[in-house]
Write a structure and sequence with these properties.
With 420 residues, the chain is of the alpha/beta class. The chain has eleven helices and 17 strands. The structure holds N-acetylmethionine and zinc ion (ZN) (2 copies).
Length: 420
Amino acid sequence: MLPEGDPTRRTEKVRSQDPHEDPSVTLFREYLRLKTVQPEPNYDAAVQFLERIGAELGLGCQKVEVCPGRVVPILSWQGTDPHLRSILLNSHMDVVPVFEEHWSHDPFEAFKDSQGNIYARGAQDMKCVSIQYIEAIRRLKAEGKCFPRTVHMTFVPDEEIGGHMGMELFVKRPEFQALNVGFALDEGLANPTDAFTVFYGEKCPWWIKVKCEGSPGHGSRFIENTAAEKLHRVITSFLQFRDSEKQRLKCDKHLTLGDVTCLNMTMLSGGVSFNVVPSELTAAFDIRIPPTVDLKAFEAQLTAWCQAAGEGVTYEFFQKAMDQTVTSTEESDPWWKAFSGACRDMHMMLKCEIFPAATDSRFIRAAGHPALGFSPMNRTPVLLHDHNEYLNERVFLQGIEIYTRLIPSLASVPPLPAEC
Ligand SMILES: CSCC[C@H](NC(C)=O)C(=O)O
Ligand SMILES: [Zn+2]
Ligand SMILES: [Zn+2]
């Protein structure tokens, strides 16, 4: 029996499942079976699991309750120069709900087929990354390695519902300040080609409801100035803009979804009866704006479209991200140099993009820390939030190898001028 704290020691429960399976894969499948599924995630199970691993690896372990029932476990590997800024490896514990009838296997069984594809909710988004961080650190520790900078792994709740009771609160806590973060990694997306996608920024999500007020009356008459006529104008302006952005993306092969403004009408409401012309109708829009767009000018455009639709057309924000910080991908940047240099040494092809949706990286960047979104899954279809989400075990294991090179490189970035 190996002693407690020895990084090669694994619990009996994990080891006994399949003697032919790589133990890292077995651990991944164990984590996938924990039902941290929204809207009622079993975070206790995940926190216990992560604490157990922290103890196995001899890592420092703390828990920060950011609000009732929302705990962030932090596993820390102290560097040889703990005064230097640290490396933050972040992942979220929760996963999105499933439509079980559309799955070929139970999404919480982590079934592995004959080709090594592991089917489970969270296989790509993003329990793979959590275990890859852990297993890379396990291997580095087992080899007796240590690095100047401290490495922290944080496992946050509620990313899938916007992070408002997770990372958004956590970055404001003194415990987060005490981590003294220099650089962070968080989630990215799979890439179906040989390349790996790296996200250096995100679009700003704007969620707005446009309310159109108009004259009511009997449904059999030509009422003047109706809410529906105004809503029609609003929808036409918004969707014409949508179409132009869609065309711009289609016509320029250098552009990705992260480079254009995406807009969708996602909800419609109003009306009480077939024969009553309503005095109010509402449309909700999900708008995602790239960091290169002037937000003030864009809002002025929205206002103009609403004004042009007629009297009594107003809008209200339900989400309005304003931080357009991007992380440097210049060779002169020490963090990017360390990240891209390690990737180059592994002959990895990188594609740098703007993330088309919103992740917890936006809170990390807004708090002033450089962050890259990176989930090391190439030759893999993008299946996050989809039915039959899976990850191949060889791709999963390759991701551990990648982190075993990335972590040393990042945790060995020489002291920056501000740190001397
Ligand atoms: C704006 S809070 C919601 C966050 C969610 N994130 C993802 C990755 O789907 C989204 O972009 O809709
Ligand atoms: Zn995610
Ligand atoms: Zn997600």
